[in-house]
Design goal:
globular; 6 helices; 5 strands; three-stranded antiparallel sheet; two-stranded antiparallel sheet; 59% helix; DNA binding; mainly alpha; 162 residues
Length: 162
């Protein structure tokens, strides 16, 4: 139900076409911004995907996640992520270690060096995002966009697979 003034109205269920058009628009907007971000000369020796791994770990409690949890937040096949984590470990940015709760589980932690490079690149990345996204919308629209995308993401846990 939507609240409109003092009246409550039933929310209209969107058609399949409306849902597809909204998704297409969101996806194409994301692609156009991502292409620009990928082309930016801010990544140094890291790829944007490697940065995403460091960023995801930086958001985690104690900068550590199970490899499976990391994979849930990264759009990449598990085998590709495992190889990337191995390369990042060789460079000193992450550390893999066994889970104390489950000997078969692997934890991935951000190292001090990984945290430092993530913060450095993160500042540049935020400036680029602000440059490409900021002029397109006002502050209220950006808040609304964030709320809508968070709602879409959270709802996926409750929606059955096709």
């Amino acid at each position: 139900m939507e609240k409109e003034g003092a009246l409550m109205t039933e929310a209209r269920v969107p058609s399949a076409r409306e849902a597809a058009e909204a998704w297409e628009s969101l996806f194409r907007a994301q692609v156009s911004v991502m292409r620009r971000l990928l082309a930016d000369d801010i990544w140094g020796d890291l790829s944007m995907r490697e940065y995403d791994v460091l960023f995801t770990l930086a958001l985690a409690p104690e900068e550590t996640l199970r490899l499976r949890e990391l994979n849930e937040n990264i759009l990449m096949a598990q085998s590709s992520l495992s190889r990337m984590v191995e390369r990042l470990e060789k460079r000193g940015f992450v550390r893999r270690h066994p889970s104390p709760d489950d000997g078969r589980g692997v934890l991935v932690s951000l190292t001090e060096e990984g945290s430092a490079i993530q913060k450095e690149l993160g500042r540049r990345h935020v400036r680029s995002i602000a440059h490409y996204v900021g002029p397109a919308m006002d502050a209220e629209e950006l808040v609304q966009l964030r709320q809508l995308t968070e709602r879409l993401r959270a709802a996926q846990a409750e929606i059955d697979d096709v």
